[in-house]
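User: Before I run my own analysis I want an independent prediction to cross-check against. Here's the chain; please return only the structure tokens and, at the end, one sentence I can use as a sanity check.
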Amino acid sequence: MRIAIDARLPYYTQGGISSYVRALMTQLPVQDSANDYLMLHARRAALLPVAAGARSVRCWTPAHHRLERLALAVELWPHRPQLLHSPDFIGPLAAGWRSVITIHDLTFLIYPQFLTAESRRYYNQQITASVRGAQAILADSEATRQDILERLPVPADCVHTVHLAQDARFAPQPQPAVAAMRTRHALPDEYFLFVGTFEPRKNLPALLRAYALVRQQLPDAPALVLAGNSGWLQPELQTQAAGLHLQKHLLLRPDFPAEDLPALYTGASVLALPSHYEGFGMPVLEAMACGTPVVISERGSLPEIAGGAAISCAPDDDASIASALQSALSDTALRSQVRAAGLARAATFSWERCCRETLRVYHAVLHG
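Assistant: Structure tokens:
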């Protein structure tokens, strides 16, 4: 059988979904030598690494283009795959192949106010047609699977939970590497940390207010570092920090280099992810794998992914977030317990297992 994987997204953006795509590209052909694999790349991008035996195909159609369902189907037609996996929500029009799609979250349906108008249009106008054309849907978490069943017209036996994983490079880093990272990025010896896109869904205004409360109780509390991808919330964050008198204590590090993330996590006192909603929450696993205590909100997939190895807070309650941050920082016994539990929990996730479970779905779709 010929199986195609849509791998165009990593050309345009980095992050959890792009890590997922790269894992599929490098591991699926290794685990499944019985089938042939086509990897669909953006035409202008440098070709990403693929496993031996897989073949790369350059595509003109940009990711997230308003006409991509038709345009990508036309481009793929000459290659005649038996199955196409679209790992970024939206699959092209069916044209003789079976379709598997991955839905990472339903923010655009549950919290539409947290997306730009352009993003809402892209997903809302196409998601129903995409799921109706799919023979199987993968969800990053059971929480996302339940959201899909509640809000989209799909049968339960068509939706499968397949957890993602952190890359193997996320592990406790040696102190010289951490010190060098701090020097490169002008970071202090201790800091609270957030990693992710600066966007409303991440609940960063509440995190800043909670951090200000922590500083009232602990004037010498570590700085707060926000690292990740620039988003459409960044100017408001700077204004809010000024209003809370946090300018000297808030360190924005947008577009933080991926190669420095393991050292960044290792050097952090606490990772905070008080999101309103997550379909998976990759920074939780990455931080736990680096031995960093984690504070999460009691929402979406985060409790499921953390598996009891994190300190929880109510995302709509600034005092609850502040209390969790302070406990994670100051309670020595709790820090030790959470750190050990996090390392053990992170070790249960792997891209090898993710791809193995994905292959089971492929085989069921092709031969069921």
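Sanity check: DSSP finds 15 helices and 13 strands in the chain.
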